[in-house]
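ok trying this again, last paste got cut off
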Amino acid sequence: MFLKELLHYNKKLFLCFVIFLAFFVFLNFKWGVVASPVHQFGMYSGRYTVKDTQEVYRIYVNEQLIDFTNLSLAQRDQLQFPLFYFERQKQNNLAVFTTMKRVLSKVLIGKLMKEEDYTNQVSSIAFTNWYSNKLQQMLGYPVTKLEVTAQKYIYQNNTLQPTAEPRKLPFIVIN
């Protein structure tokens, strides 16, 4: 065991490491913050059921639907997650600020926080330019027209069934 070997190797280093661990355990359980570099508890804290509604993004580049089966899982994530998070950036900004204010208020520095320091102010045009460049790098050809739709699906009878009409994402601004 690592701790046993560390104790025999250097008692002061062992004590520092145990104090370090105790501090992060205290943060995780007392304040409800997943701040530990040793244990990422929050990663596995929610249940995921197959009946959950799934939102699927369809990306049309130069009027051609991108076939995600031709991309690696990492590339799929690089195309899907930025759309998901940009669409929810205002909600995420408020959640980050509120959480950090609650945590930092406990150590008496919450009053020094400014909401604009915890706010992502990326515009639709800047996001679209960045996303288009990412697509060009990944696909290997220029993006002259870009359209993204989102549609909700539910898993029933061993297939995905649409639950609503597709909606065009309003923040994509290339025509």
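PB: full thing came through this time. The beta strands are 53-61, 64-65, 146-156, 159-162, 167-168.
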